[in-house]
Structure formats: structure tokens, C-alpha cells
Amino acid sequence: MKTRVIKYFAGLQDRICSKLEEIDRSSRFLKEDWSLDGGAGGGATRVIEHGGIFEKAGVNFSAVTTQLSEMLAVRLKVQPQSAFATGISLVLHPESPMIPTVHMNLRYFELANGDAWFGGGADLTPYYLFNEDAHHFHNVLREMCNLHNPLWYPQFKKWCDEYFFLKHRNEARGVGGIFFDYERENPEQFFAFVQDAGNAFLEAYAPIVEKRRNEPWGEREKGWQKIRRGRYVEFNLVYDRGTLFGLETGGRTESILISLPPEARWTYNYEPEAGSREAALLEVLQKPREWA
């Protein structure tokens, strides 16, 4: 399983990056392969900065072996031991506030005692809400889930809404998607599901980029995007399991923090104007909807 998952994730990174270069049109990914000391594994970081569409796009692959700290073992509800982890993680921050940020993470853990599981998901973070975009993203994920189990989309959608939620703001990070973790039963079935989830990513996101790439925007919209990006930073540094796991296990810091946007803003006690498009987004983030 370990070898097959590594091969799939590495290939998925290549396919996604190739398509994103087509979408961006003016930029290529900077490619940096890296390795940990002592033969503990490594990975491949792919980055676009200040491209034609993507202000910052990061697509990471890694496969590493680490020793779980006591604190991390408690969080994972296992005994301290050696652990293998591999995964692909991407965050795309478009220049245009009319194109949503998107995140996907798929991962596989295998402990020295033989315990193993899959986790991951994908979610959409718009700055200006286009209902049809949220419907499209969720419908692709729902149809993909239904190929395996019709109960999974509602279950994983609910889990996503609960996980990507800033408790200190009482608002969701975005309009959600799917999220799953600690999936131990029937590893062959779940590996097939993880592959379909990875393969569905471009179908879910690329049409939204093409539809919104020429939408007009100005300084006001860019300012709102930066404020919302600040919320994104807050989530990733306070709650995100992948970020915390990477930093606590001595992972490569530049690759871990590639998810952060190039520019963000914190405006004291900011409240959008009543009836504005900004207020309409905030209303949805405070009361998550069903999109599919």
C-alpha cells in the first residue's frame, strides 16, 4: 500500500501542476525537490508566485518517516512510535478576488505497529459568492462520493463544515467541500476513493477559474480579499492539523507554510456595509448551506 500510494500522489502532483500551468498561461511552477537528514524521506515542492492567474500556488508532495512525539501521539490517540506519512497538499491563491482560493489535501499514515489510515478532503474559499460556483464544486464532489457510498458526501460535507470553522470568529473559512480522517476500514476501497477524489479536483475547480478569470474588480474588492485571507491565515496557524503535524515533526518549514497567501490584512473591528456583496458572503459563512 505504501508504495502504491506514493506513486499515485507523486503522479497526481505532476498532472495537477501541468494543468494549472495551462490555466495560468504565463507562469511555470518553480520545482524544488528536498530530502530530510538521515534518509527519513523527502518530497517535492512546486510553487507559482505572481503568475497570470495565481498570485501564489503551492502544490506539495511528501513521503517521510518520523518519530511521533508524546504530545502528537496523544493527539492521534496512539502510542509514541515511528510513523510513515505521505500526501499531496495544495493551496491556490488567485490574484483576482472573483476567483476563490481552493485547498486539497490527501494523505496516508502508517504506524510501526501496523495501524494505518487515510485522510484529507477539498474545500472552496470564495471572496465574492457566486452560488453556481459553489453548487458546481459540491456537485462534482457529491457525484464522486456516490460512486463509492451515497452516505459519504453528506457525512464528509458535514465534517468539512465543522472542521474548517473559525470558532473564535464564529464563521466558516469558506463554503466547504468534503473532509475525512482516520479511515481505517477497508483500505483498498478507501484508496480507490482517495484516487477518485484526487482525480476529481480539476473537474471541480478549473471551470470556476475559467468562468471568473475576466470578472472585473478593483481596490475595494482586493481589500476585502486581503481581509478574508487574514481569516485563512488564522485557521491555518491555529487549527489546521497538517500545519501542526508538519511543524511538530520537524518538517520542512517553507513547504509547510506555502499555504499562506502572499498578502493579507487585519483591519480592526471591520464590518462590511449592510446589503453589500461582502456582507452577503459573511452571512453564508456564519450559516453554512447545503450546496448539492
Structure description:
The chain is 43% helix and 26% strand. The two termini are 33 Å apart. The radius of gyration is 19 Å and the shape is globular. A seven-stranded antiparallel beta sheet has the order 1-2-3-4-5-6-9. The relative contact order is 0.15. It has one domain (2-286): oxygen-dependent coproporphyrinogen oxidase. The model has no long low-confidence stretch (mean pLDDT 95). The chain contains nine helices and nine strands. The protein has 292 residues and is α+β, with helices and mostly antiparallel strands. α1 runs parallel beside α5 (187-212) and α3 packs antiparallel against α5 (187-212). β5 (101-111) and β6 (116-125) form a beta hairpin. The chain has helices at residues 2-24, 70-76, 131-146, 152-163, 187-212, 219-238, 241-248, 253-256, 277-286; strands at residues 30-35, 41-49, 54-67, 82-94, 101-111, 116-125, 165-166, 171-172, 176-183.
Keywords:
single chain, oxygen-dependent coproporphyrinogen oxidase, seven-stranded antiparallel β-sheet, two-stranded antiparallel ribbon
Q: Numbering strands along the chain, what is their spatial order in the largest sheet?
A: 1-2-3-4-5-6-9
Order of helices and strands: HEEEHEEEHHEEEHHHHH
Which spans have pLDDT < 50 for at least 5 consecutive residues? none
Structural class of the secondary structure composition? alpha+beta
Alpha carbon gyration radius: 19 Å
Task: Detail the topology: elements first, then pairings.
Elements: H1 2-24, E1 30-35, E2 41-49, E3 54-67, H2 70-76, E4 82-94, E5 101-111, E6 116-125, H3 131-146, H4 152-163, E7 165-166, E8 171-172, E9 176-183, H5 187-212, H6 219-238, H7 241-248, H8 253-256, H9 277-286
Helix pairs in contact: 1-5, 3-5
